[in-house]
């Protein structure tokens, strides 16, 4: 029987999380994409804490433009925050989403701002 969209996404998310985890030196950049918003977090999985976060709902991010442009701004914002906090390398976790569209835009924005993954 064919998997539903959410079951497939959950299966991919578990497969990614088996091999990718965040440490204090190299935190995990986790992406969550809803229908209207996009969120990014830096997570230390050893301690189980969120170090930094940025989203399209933040006041500092201009919500004018299409969703991909806003995702790129979120990527730049999380990269600036992480570089200021001393994290320049991260492990990218796309959260079961395809590396396409808004997820790719966020990753490109973070790379342009100086984050390495």
TrEMBL record:
Keyword Transcription regulation set for record: no
Pfam families: Ribosomal_L18p
MF terms (GO), sorted A to Z: 5S rRNA binding; structural constituent of ribosome
Cellular component terms per the entry's GO annotation: cytosolic large ribosomal subunit
Source domain of life: Bacteria
InterPro entries listed in its UniProt record: Ribosomal_L18, Ribosomal_uL18_bac-type, Ribosomal_uL18_bac/plant/anim
GO biological process, one term: translation
Record keywords: Ribonucleoprotein, Ribosomal protein, RNA-binding, rRNA-binding
NCBIfam families for this protein: L18_bact
Functional summary from the UniProt entry: This is one of the proteins that bind and probably mediate the attachment of the 5S RNA into the large ribosomal subunit, where it forms part of the central protuberance.
Similarity field: Belongs to the universal ribosomal protein uL18 family.
Subunit structure: Part of the 50S ribosomal subunit; part of the 5S rRNA/L5/L18/L25 subcomplex. Contacts the 5S and 23S rRNAs.
Name of the protein described by the UniProt record: Large ribosomal subunit protein uL18
Native species: Maribacter vaceletii
Gene for this chain: rplR
């Amino acid at each position: 029987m064919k998997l539903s969209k959410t079951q497939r996404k959950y299966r991919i998310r578990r497969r990614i999380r088996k091999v990718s985890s965040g440490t204090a030196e190299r935190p995990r950049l986790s992406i969550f994409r809803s229908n209207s918003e996009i969120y990014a977090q830096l997570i230390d999985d050893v301690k189980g804490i969120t170090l930094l976060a940025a989203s399209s709902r933040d006041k500092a991010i201009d919500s004018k433009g299409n969703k991909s442009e806003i995702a790129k701004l979120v990527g730049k914002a999380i990269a600036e925050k992480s570089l200021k906090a001393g994290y320049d390398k991260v492990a990218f976790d796309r959260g079961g989403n395809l590396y396409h569209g808004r997820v790719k835009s966020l990753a490109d924005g973070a790379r342009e701002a100086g984050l390495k993954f």
